[in-house]
Structures
1.
Amino acid sequence: MSELPPSPAYPAPSYPPPDLVPPEAPRKPRGPVIALALIGVAIIACVAVAVPMLVDEANVDLTDVRSYDGLVVDHTTADVDYPQSPAVGGAHDPTWLDCGVYDEPVREENAVHDLEHGAVWLSYDPDLADGDVAHLADRLPQNGIMAPYPGLSAPVVVTVWGRQLSLDGAGDRRLELFLQRYGGGETAPEAFASCAGGVRDPAVGAPGTDV
């Protein structure tokens, strides 16, 4: 009996067949995703900071400004008993004060003449810190005077003719709003005049005198 030839060896089948294995999906780059996530975090952080600031800004207004109308514009060399402190207008000395910062209290009757010329009068408590005084001096408009005022009812008071606002301090943001609204002399009888050319010492005579 003859022997049969050996059967050929076949490789064991693989499951699933290679041609049926789905190709591996390409990986998406992660860079844009991370960048978008970081942008989102930054936006949230900005909103967290900005929203309280916007709410705080909404509470800053000029509702506390006091208005005084019908003020006389008479000149007098006599002392005047003003009903407001500091004065906001009324009869005043024929001599006005030169624009600028004063280290000592100024005579009220002369300062009121500056108000008539559309000037801003910044008054501050004599005990105000030096840094705060310097900050106020930086904020003083060109057409303005600034001086300590003994007995002031607030740390700082800003005055124009017929309008006045008491401030909590040199950093009170209402000062900027007040200057934007009234700093151009809008309420003054002589809105287009100036405190320039006045005297540095009210006791000095002729310069800066209206007849």
Note: Residues 31-58 form the longest helix (28 residues).
2.
Amino acid sequence: MTSKPRIAIILGENTSAGGTRYDTSKGYFNAVARAGGLPFGIPYVADLVSAVADEFDGFVSVGGRINFPQSWYVDGDASQFPLSDRLAVDQSLMEAFLERDKPVLGICNGMQMLACLHGCRMVSDIRATRDDIIPHDGDDLQHEARIAPGTALAAILGAGRIDVNTFHREAVVSVSDRVVASAHAPDGVIEAIEIPSRRFAVGLQWHPELMAADHRGHRVFDAFVEAARS
């Protein structure tokens, strides 16, 4: 019997209330477990990074609102979010898993980190960039995501479009030649990325872990966990 892959999930924190507690949706853990993985929450302890990257089979960088380096933003822009103890450990874990070519899944904040570590740039308030940008930051909001043909994400989802939730103010606005933008919102906002040079490195701007268990978006967790088996 094949053992289940062990998946490291960086914990979130209550940045809006002082950053005094780890605070992470159960949805990430449930989605990984449903896909056949064993999820483990990882705290912000730098000495854990090498051991986690060596011993675990895949890494999930979760959503959140933390202060990213100014160099990740377009000229003249900067993060509006609080400083966080999470940044250094999250980044080190992502880099370590990528170096080992172990599967990485970045969700929302995690997608932005994955993108910017590969030369992309972002903005702190996507709605301030153009008048035609639709609302992207709300508990009850949904919009269509159009999947680029021929991408890994298209193969995973088996569809050219899906409806997704949306909880973000920041957004990636330019991609480097190391990154493929694999989904867009109707207003052109980048909704997913992938790193072709890695075995599995996918970023989603939306939150599939908060969708119904039968939503097509959960196929990303299935593909991620399956990649972690090999």
Note: The mean pLDDT is 96.
3.
Amino acid sequence: MIKEDKRSYYPRIGYKDYIIDGLELVFGLFLFGAASYVTVQANVGLSPWVAFSVGFAKLTGVNYGIVHVIISVVIVVLDIILKEKIGWGTVADALMVGSIMSIFDSMNLMPLITGYWEGIAAMLVGIFISAVGSFFYMDAAFGCGPRDALFVALCRIMPKLPVGAVRILLEGSALLVGWLLGAKVGLGTVIAVFGIGIFIEIVFRFMKFDVTRVHHENLVDTHMNLVRIHRGEETK
């Protein structure tokens, strides 16, 4: 059981808060990168955005983790153009997740699974680890990931479309492009699309974590709050 999230009511009040939450952010993103690597090695189908990265990796010959970083950075730039607020979590997500995937792949930490049911089991493990990583990443409250920020921006641009339809359009487009470029789509893809929501629900309930109570800091919030802390001013 975790402590009540004080950031629901007021900002971080000292440097120690930033250090602790920064470590939580890094740990969550490390888990997310590791989980993404496991789902690739499961070899039963890829989640939409991983398929997008793997597809472009096949096209360019560049490691899919590096491609993931490049795509993430491009999306962050697009988020800024669309006037979405980004935080240090957005930037860290863009740089870390794909880098971890690339490092693990270069180290060949996990062989490509050839057995179908073993692959399904690995996919489920990867999705569960991803859900745990999502808890730590979101609890750190340093901003949405690049793709989530893009989703929010698209919802604002297309207000007449239901939120679910926007999400399906975004991730469906990523999956289609990845598949057309040669990324593997299969039962694991279906498990990834539906399983992440189920595992996140389980993990968040177990940790008694209410995502709606967390106020995410963007870059401006963080800068202003650190200035107040440095000056010894009381945060509100």
Note: The chain has nine helices and no strands.
